[in-house]
Design brief:
A: D-Maltodextrin-Binding Protein, domain 2, 12 helices, B: alpha+beta, MetI-like fold, two-stranded antiparallel sheet, 11 helices
Chain lengths: 346, 383
C-alpha cells in the first residue's frame, strides 16, 4: 500500500515536471504584448503630434499617414480590424520613454534608426518604412541655392531631441561655420518661429520639410535645398524583450512592401488566392502556415492588404496625392530603381 | 519604558514605512530597467555631448561633455531667474506702493495691472510675448537704432559690447568704493548713537561709488571702448548684426513674462506689508516731528519688511521654478538643454531627471536660505 502511494506520487511528480516543461516551451512562443493587446481590444500606437503624410489627425480625430498605416496593419493582423488602434501623439522628447514605460506598444513616429537608440535604451527597430535624409529649407528670395552658401551667424530653427540636432552640428562644424541653433519642443512652434523670420533656415528630415512647408503662411516663398546631409532611415520601434511582438510588427510592415512587389493590393487581394504564384498565395494566406509562427491565424497578411493596402497604395494615399513628395525617390521598390527591399515571406 | 515606546514607536514605524516605499520603488525601477536592457549610471556625463547650444554664458561647443552642457543650462536658468527677480522686485514695489496711492487713477491702474497679469496663465503670457514680439519686431535690416547704438530686431536685441583694458584695476576701485561705503556707514551710525549727529551717508556713498572708479580711468590706465553692432549680409534678403552683444528674443520674452507675472504677487506682498503696519505708528512718528520721508524709512518700512519678506521669498522660488517653462520658446535653460536634448541623446531618463530635480531643489533651498538670513536680520530683536 505504502509502496503504491510512493509510486503514484513519483508518477504525479513526473507528470508535473513534464507539464511544467511543456507550458514553458509554449510560453516561449507567446507574446505578452500580443496577449494584452487582444485582451484590451486595440493596439496602442505612438505617433507624431501632426506631420502631414506620416501621422496627422483631421478635425474629427481620424489619423492618417504612412506611419499610422503601420499600426493599422498590426491591428488588422492581430485583432482583425485595422481601425482598432489608439493613437497617442508624442513629442520627440517623450517618444522613447512612452515606449519603454509601456504606455504604447508600437512607436511609429518618423523615428531615425541609429545604433545608440537600437542598442542602448531598451528599444528595437523593426525595419524602415521611409528612407529620408536631413535637408534645409530657406526663403526663395534669399537667393541661396545650396548649403555651401551659408555664412557665419546663420540662425537655424529645428526640433528638440532629434538626430537633426546632432547632424546639424556635424554639418556646420565640419565646414567651420558658426551658427545659432534655435531649438523648439514642438514642430508647430518651429514652423511659427521660422515663419516669423526668427531663423534664416529650417532644418529637419526632408520629408518633414516638405510636409511642414504646407503649414507656412506662404508655402511658395520657401524652397528646400537639394543637398541631403545625413541618412535618416525612419521606421517603427518596439520595446526590447518581446521578440514575437517585434516579429509581428516587422512582418506586418514587410507584408505591405512585399504585396506591392507582387502587385497585390486592397482590391485584388481576394482574387489572388487562386494565383499560380506560390509566393503570392503565401502572401494572401492561401498557402503555408505563416501566421502560426507568431500565434496568429492564417489570414493575418490578407487582412493587412485588404484593410490597409500595400505600401504603394499607402504612399500614394498619404504622401504623393497630398502633394508632399510626389516623387518616391529612394522609397521606390528595388525592382523599380529604389532601395525598398524586404526579406521574403516564406 | 512604556512611555518611551509610546513616544518613539510611531516615529520608528513612519521612518520604516518611508524607507520601505523608497526601497520598493528603487527595486521596482531596477528590475524593470534590467528587463528592458537599460543600464543605470552617470558615466555619460563625461562623454562628448555633440550638440550645440544657442546661447551660453561660458565657452561651449559640441565637443564638450554632457556635464558642461548641464552647466550651460544651469547658468542660463540662473541668469533668467536673476534678471527676472530684480525686475519683478522693482516693478512689484512700485505697483504695490501705487495701489496705496491716494490718487484715484494711479491706485486703479495698479489694481487693474495686478488683476490682469496674475490671472492669465504664465505659459500663455510667455507665448504671447514671444510670438507677439516675433511678429511685431522688424527684420535686422529694417530696425531703427534705439539710443543710437542698439537694435531691437526679430533675431534679438543687439547692444554694443564693452572692450576693457585693465579691467581688474577698475574692479579693484569698485571694490574699494564698496568697502569705504561700509566703513562710512558704520562710522555714521556710531556718530549718531554717541553724539546724535547726522551726516548725509547716501550722498557720500554715491559720490564714492562714482569718484573712485572714475579715478581709475584717469590714473589707473583703465580704458573702455565700445564695439558697435554692424549690419552684415547673410544672403540677398537676410541680415544679422555682427559685433556687440546679442540678447536672444527668447531671453527677452521670458524675462518680460516672468517679471510681469511675478511682480503682481510681489506687489500684493508689498501692499499687505505696508497695510499691516498699524496707523497709530505713522501718526505717532509724525507727532514726534519726523518728516514723511523719515516716517516711511525709519518707522513704516522696517516693520513692513517683516511682513513682506517671507511671502516674497515664495514668489522668488516660484519664479525660479517657473523659468523651466523656457523650453516652450526655445530658451536653452536647464530643462531644454539637459532634461531635453541631453536626455534624448543619451536615453538616461532616470539619471537626468533626478539630477535636474536635485538642481532645482538646491537652487530653491539656496534662495530660501538667503531670504531667511535676511529675514532673521530684520526681524524684531527683543532687547
Amino acid at each position: 500500500m505504502f509502496k503504491l502511494v510512493k509510486q503514484l506520487t513519483s508518477l504525479v511528480a513526473m507528470f508535473a515536471v513534464l507539464f511544467a516543461f511543456s507550458t514553458e516551451t509554449m510560453a516561449a512562443k507567446k507574446s505578452k504584448t500580443l496577449e494584452n493587446t487582444k485582451k484590451r481590444g486595440f493596439v496602442r500606437c505612438g505617433v507624431s503630434q501632426g506631420l502631414p503624410g506620416f501621422s496627422n489627425a483631421d478635425e474629427s480625430g481620424n489619423w492618417t499617414g504612412i506611419d499610422v498605416d503601420v499600426c493599422r496593419a498590426v491591428a488588422a493582423a492581430t485583432l482583425g480590424d485595422a481601425t482598432k488602434v489608439k493613437f497617442t501623439p508624442l513629442s520627440a522628447k517623450e517618444r522613447f520613454t512612452a515606449l519603454t514605460s509601456g504606455e504604447i506598444d508600437i512607436l511609429s513616429r518618423n523615428t531615425t534608426w541609429t545604433l545608440s537608440r537600437d542598442a542602448d535604451i531598451g528599444l528595437t527597430f523593426v525595419g524602415v518604412n521611409f528612407y529620408d535624409g536631413q535637408g534645409f529649407m530657406v526663403r526663395k528670395g534669399s537667393g541661396i541655392k545650396s548649403t555651401s552658401e551659408f555664412k557665419n551667424g546663420t540662425s537655424v530653427c529645428t526640433n528638440l531631441g532629434t538626430t537633426t540636432e546632432l547632424n546639424m552640428r556635424d554639418f556646420f562644424d565640419s565646414r567651420g561655420i558658426s551658427y545659432e541653433p534655435v531649438v523648439f519642443e514642438k514642430a508647430d512652434e518651429v514652423v511659427a518661429a521660422y515663419d516669423a523670420g526668427r531663423c534664416d533656415t529650417y532644418t529637419t528630415d526632408k520629408s518633414g520639410l516638405a510636409a511642414q512647408r504646407t503649414k507656412l503662411s506662404a508655402p511658395d516663398d520657401h524652397v528646400v535645398l537639394p543637398e541631403t546631409i545625413s541618412k535618416e532611415p525612419l521606421g517603427p520601434v518596439v520595446r526590447q524583450g518581446d521578440s514575437v511582438w517585434e516579429d509581428i510588427v516587422r512582418w506586418s510592415l514587410n507584408t505591405m512592401i512585399e504585396a506591392e512587389e507582387y502587385g497585390v493590393n486592397s482590391s485584388n487581394a481576394d482574387m489572388m488566392k487562386t494565383s499560380n504564384n506560390p509566393a503570392i498565395k503565401r502572401l494572401v494566406g492561401a498557402e503555408g502556415e505563416l501566421g502560426a509562427a507568431f500565434g496568429l491565424d492564417n489570414d493575418w497578411n490578407l487582412r493587412i492588404i485588404k484593410q490597409v493596402g500595400n505600401y504603394g497604395e499607402s504612399y500614394k494615399r498619404n504622401i504623393a496625392d497630398t502633394g508632399i513628395l510626389p516623387d518616391r525617390g529612394p522609397n521606390e521598390l528595388w525592382t523599380k530603381g529604389g532601395i525598398l527591399y524586404v526579406p521574403p515571406a516564406r | 519604558m512604556n512611555n518611551i515606546i509610546k513616544k518613539f514607536l510611531p516615529q520608528i514605524l513612519a521612518v520604516l514605512f518611508v524607507v520601505l516605499i523608497f526601497g520598493f520603488l528603487t527595486i521596482n525601477a531596477q528590475t524593470n530597467m534590467d528587463n528592458r536592457g537599460i543600464d543605470f549610471g552617470f558615466g555619460f556625463l563625461s562623454q562628448e555631448s555633440s550638440f550645440d547650444v544657442q546661447f551660453s554664458l561660458i565657452e561651449y561647443s559640441g565637443s564638450d561633455s554632457y556635464a558642461r552642457a548641464f552647466l550651460v543650462g544651469l547658468l542660463n536658468t540662473l541668469l533668467v531667474s536673476f534678471i527676472s527677480i530684480i525686475f519683478c522686485t522693482i516693478l512689484g514695489v512700485i505697483i504695490g506702493v501705487a495701489r496705496l496711492s491716494s490718487n484715484y487713477l494711479i491706485k486703479n491702474s495698479a489694481a487693474w495691472y495686478v488683476e490682469f497679469f496674475r490671472n492669465i496663465p504664465l505659459l500663455l503670457q510667455i507665448f504671447f510675448w514671444y510670438y507677439a514680439a516675433l511678429r511685431a519686431l522688424p527684420l535686422p535690416e529694417k530696425a531703427n537704432a534705439w539710443f543710437g547704438v542698439t537694435y531691437m530686431t526679430v533675431k534679438g536685441y543687439y547692444i554694443p559690447a564693452m572692450v576693457w583694458e585693465n579691467l581688474n584695476v577698475f574692479l579693484y576701485c569698485g571694490l574699494a568704493a564698496i568697502i569705504s561705503i561700509i566703513v562710512l556707514r558704520n562710522y555714521a551710525n556710531n556718530l549718531r548713537d554717541t553724539q546724535g549727529k547726522q551726516i548725509p551717508v547716501l550722498l557720500y556713498s554715491i559720490a564714492l561709488l562714482i569718484i573712485l572708479p572714475l579715478l581709475s580711468f584717469l590714473f589707473g590706465g583703465v580704458s573702455l571702448e565700445f564695439e558697435l553692432p554692424q549690419l552684415k549680409k547673410l544672403s540677398k534678403i537676410s541680415y544679422i548684426y555682427e559685433g556687440g552683444i546679442s540678447l536672444p528674443p527668447e531671453l527677452i520674452a521670458l524675462v518680460l513674462a516672468l517679471s510681469l507675472y511675478t511682480s503682481t504677487f510681489v506687489a500684493e506682498c508689498v501692499r499687505a506689508g505696508i497695510e499691516g503696519v498699524s496707523k497709530g505708528q505713522k501718526e505717532a512718528a509724525a507727532s514726534v516731528g519726523l518728516t514723511p520721508n523719515q516716517v516711511l524709512k525709519l518707522v513704516i518700512m522696517p516693520q513692513a519688511l517683516r511682513i513682506i519678506i517671507p511671502p516674497t521669498t515664495n514668489q522668488y522660488l516660484n519664479l525660479t521654478k517657473n523659468s523651466s517653462l523656457a523650453a516652450a520658446i526655445a530658451y536653452p535653460d536647464l530643462v531644454l538643454v539637459f532634461a531635453g536634448t541631453a536626455l534624448m541623446q543619451t536615453g538616461k531618463a532616470i539619471e537626468i531627471v533626478s539630477i535636474t530635480m536635485l538642481t532645482y531643489l538646491t537652487i530653491s533651498l539656496t534662495i530660501a536660505a538667503i531670504m531667511n538670513w535676511y529675514n532673521k536680520k530684520i526681524e524684531i530683536k527683543e532687547k
